[in-house]
Amino acid sequence: MVSNKTILDNGIRVVTEEIDHVRSVSIGAWVEGGSRHENSLSNGAAHFIEHMLFKGTERRSAFDIASAIDSVGGVMNAATGKEQTSFYIKIPDYHLELAVDLLADIFTGSRFDETEIGRERSVILQEIRMVEDTPDDLIHDFFEGMFWKDHPLGLPVLGTKEGVAAFGRDDLLAFFQTRYRGNRLVIAAAGHLKHNAFIELILRSFGSIDGSSAGGPEIAPEARPGKYVLRKDLEQVHLIIGAPAPSAVSPERHAGFLLNAVLGGSMSSWLFQEIREKRGLAYAIYSYLTAYMDTGLFGVYVGTGSEKVREVLGLVREGMKRFSSELLSETELRSAKELIKGNYLLGMESTDNRMTGLARNEICFGRQVTPEEVIARIDAVDREAIRSLAERMFRSDALTVAAIGQVSEDDLVL
To answer: Which of 98, 202, 221, 389 has the fewest CB atoms nearer than 10 Å to its CB?
Structure first.
């Protein structure tokens, strides 16, 4: 398997990995634009644009776009995040030219038709309402809004009902014309392809995209520790307890992966065993690590009964204190490393995961981080590195707890 990189004259970075023993190709167009690049007035624009690029171009109707990939047995999708928006196609290798042409068409020829905007506005409003009716989803938006208060990272990716309802065509085009530029675009492909031939396709299809757009440096956020409650008439209380964590490029990120694994990131983790298996206090309990370019977030989610909130929070805090003050056993460290390495290597079996890795490595590091390097860095983490990170992350004055349900701030005892 061979990886290559070419930077086009308009700034587009093209990274590929040639995998000769498969018959698929996964292609992703990654835009460095997400809800972090919005403000209170433009919040939701990146996500709205993601929808609109499937709603018709000068050459294809919305149905033509949907059927083009279906008709050749492929898959096409997209996702908007805080820092990037990605458009993804996986196809048999002999339909590579079609996939590149379709991706380029939606990037360069989307019409942003007023009628389609109105129709898609209704779809997105329903999507927002669906999140509002799903408290285990809503708690994440609520928590991040409080955790990153007064910073764009705290804005919901979908936007708000009021903001989405107010968007006009000019609002969407303003964001699109700022972020969808060559210097903010990475095209990644992994599978049965040849880099030079792929570059020819990209030049022919994406060469007309404007090269650059202005933009100042990102403003790093500051977490806002505290207790926050959203009262709702629910059967359960949904909680997240979180703290700042290593960024996507931090040398401590591998220690963070391992800490997450032992605390709450697997069925054998401390929180899952103590809260669900031993005491039956929750059905859903897990920890997670979300990394951005200049910061990160470590969170613990749990859904439990209102009468169990204090007990559950006490156990979460006990787990945090344990890993802050005690070294992992050699067995715990070895098991955590094998879990992380195994999940990583198994994920590398698919062309879509390899494509995603190519894009993220290029965006974060400007180079490809090899599997061997990842494994070596995980193996190099020692027990003290994990304990030290936990001690700094889980200070009482650094923690934020947010809850949705029949609960008060007095119940959120850490």
So the answer is: 98
Alpha carbons 69 and 88: distance in angstroms, whole number: 11
* Residues of the chain above pLDDT 70, percent: 99
* β-sheet with 24-31: strand ranges across: 2-7, 13-18, 185-191, 24-31, 85-92, 75-80
* Straight-line distance from the first to the last Cα atom of the chain, in angstroms, rounded to the nearest whole number: 49
Architecture of domain 2-206: 2-Layer Sandwich (3.30)
Cβ-based burial of 244 (10 A; exposed 0-12, middle 13-18, buried ≥19): buried
Structure tokens at 139: 């708690």
Average pLDDT over residues 321-338: 97
Looking at residue 53, the DSSP 8-state letter turns out to be T
Nearest to 96 by CA among 16, 12, 31, 6: 16
| pLDDT bucket at 216, cuts 50 / 70 / 90 | low
**CA gap 216, 142 in Å, rounded:** 28
Domain over 226-411 is classified CATH 3.40.1080.10 = no
**Cβ 12 vs Cβ 202: under 8 Å:** yes
Q: Helix, strand or coil for residue 295?
A: coil
- Give the pLDDT score at 2: 78
Sketch the domain layout of the chain as residue ranges: 2-206, 226-411
| Options 17, 50, 144, 274, the catalytic residue | 50
Q: How far apart are CA 260 and CA 282, in angstroms?
A: 19
Alpha helix segments (H runs only) across 281-350: 309-325, 330-347
**Is 50 noted as a catalytic residue in this protein?**
yes
Residue 90 DSSP SS3: strand
Is this prediction's pTM over 0.85? Answer: yes
Residue ranges of alpha helices (H) inside 78-155 are 96-109, 114-132, 135-147
At a CB cut-off of 8 Å and minimum separation 6, what does 341 contact? 375, 378, 379
* 2-206 and 226-411 in the same fold: yes
CA torsion angle 195 200 205 208 (round to 10): 110
